[in-house]
Amino acid sequence: MASPRETRIVSYGSTSIGRVRSTNEDAFLRDDHIRLYAVADGVGGQPAGEIASELAVKELQRFFRFYVPAAERSVPTMNLALRAVNDAVQARARSDVRCRGMATTLTACWIIDHRAIIGHVGDSQAFLLRGGRIRQVTVEHTVASELRGRGVGTHHPVMRTVLSHMLTKSVGPEPLRDPQVCDIELKRGDILMLCSDGVTRNTTEHELARIMREQQLPQQAVEELLRVADEHGGQDNATAVIVKIL
Predict the structure, then answer these.
(1) Roughly what angle, to the nearest 10 degrees, separates helices 218-231 and 205-214?
(2) Element housing 59 (H / E)
(3) Shortest CA distance to 18 belongs to which of 232, 215, 206, 242?
């Protein structure tokens, strides 16, 4: 039960293998007890993507359940958690030859009182719907995103190739540098969504906002998001977690 200071919430998460992939390399975390939520997407083209993503969300949950006293609920703690997860994925890759080179994205949300602390590495995403308007909270760690940040337009030849989708940061392959961590003040009626790129690449931001507005319950919204992603081709695994602030 929430304390008088805590924000009341309702949440739901689910994943879909899609129509093309033979395995699901996405994983998600929904822990209402410690108010921790996450989506991870094993990096395609690397070995053991499904192991990397599952390990990432489990290690994240373990860190917050067993190593974080109430006095240390802060943005720096999320930063430490992401680094601990990265270390765990690296350790597994070193100890198991089948996992050498494995990597995953990780986007997490930790709700404390009236705040949401977001931690992010890769191209999964976090969105905030407030007052009917949607805002992308996280920045894609991809070649395309970095080029846009340097003023390169969408007509540049590189932006039309698969190279544009290459990750510039992920959990696992090397020491983690500069993950994105931010702090959002929450308001009643806010809706937070974490999702893998199997959702965002198959659904426009306008569609995301419409679904989140029209579906009153997180379960309905998540199921509709995955249905639409599948209807648009289901080229990739798709995963979403939604948290609604009551």
Answers:
(1) 150
(2) helix 49-66
(3) 232
221-229 long-range contacts (CB < 8 A, ≥24 apart) are 221/12, 221/191, 221/193, 222/12, 222/13, 222/14, 223/14, 225/193, 225/195, 225/199, 226/14, 226/15, 226/16, 226/199, 228/202, 228/203, 229/16, 229/18, 229/198, 229/199, 229/202, 229/203
Structural tokens at position 191: 């809706």
Write out pLDDT tens, residues 15-56. 999 999 999 999 999 999 999 999 999 998 778 999 999 999
The structural domains of the chain, with segments of one domain joined by +, span: 9-245
Q: Which two tokens stand for residue 139?
A: 């920045």
pLDDT, tens digit, 9 for 90 and up, residues 186-202: 999 999 999 999 999 98
What are residue 166's phi and psi, to 5 degrees? Answer: -65, 140
What would the pLDDT profile of 218-245 be if each residue is shown by its tens digit?
999 999 999 999 999 999 999 999 999 9
pLDDT digits (tens, 9 = 90+) for 76-123: 999 999 999 999 999 999 999 999 999 999 999 999 989 999 999 999
Kindly give the pairing relationship between strand 191-195 and strand 125-130: antiparallel
Q: Report the alpha-carbon distance of residue 79 to residue 64 in Å, rounded.
A: 12
- d(C-alpha 158, C-alpha 245), whole Å: 40
CATH of domain 9-245: 3.60.40.10
